[in-house]
Amino acid sequence: MTSERLDQPRELRRSLRPHYDPEAFGRLSEQIARFLGTARFLVYMTVFVAVWVIWNAVAPESLRFDPYPFIFLTLMLSLQASYAAPLILLAQNRQGDRDRIQYEQDRETAERNQAEIEYLTREIAGLRLALNEVTTRDYLRTELTRLVEELKGDAEAPR
C-alpha cells in the first residue's frame, strides 16, 4: 500500500471510459433539441419518410431495400425518437437550471430594491417631518405683516 503525498499531484490514470466535456455536450444537445422543435425539421422528416415510402413502394423490385410494411423505416424512426427524447430532456434540464439561477438573481435584486424603497420612504418621511418644522413663506409673510402692524400700532400709540 502506497501512501499518497499531498504536496505532489496524483499520477494520471488511464481509463477505458471516453472523456467528454459535459458543457459542450449540453450545448450540442440544446442545439439539436432546438432544431427538433422547428417546422423545418418536420418538413425534412416528412419529405424523408415520403421519399422512403414512395421509393420502396414504386421502385423496381431489385432497388427496393425496405419492402412493405417498412420495418427498417420503423426501426430508423424509433432510433431517432430514442435519441431525441433524452436530448430534449437534457436541454430542458439545462434551461431549468438557467431559469433557477435567473430567478434567484431576480429575487435578490427585488429584495435590494425593496430595501432601497423602504429606506427612501423613511428618508422622505423624515424630510416631511423636518419640513413641518421649517417656516413657510406664507407663515413668515403673515407673521411679518402682523409684526409690522403691531409696530405701527405701537408707534402711533401715545406715550
UniProtKB/TrEMBL annotation:
The keyword Nuclease does not apply. It comes from the Bacteria. This is DUF1003 domain-containing protein. The chain crosses the membrane at residues 41-58, 70-91. Keywords: Membrane, Transmembrane, Transmembrane helix. The keyword Membrane applies.
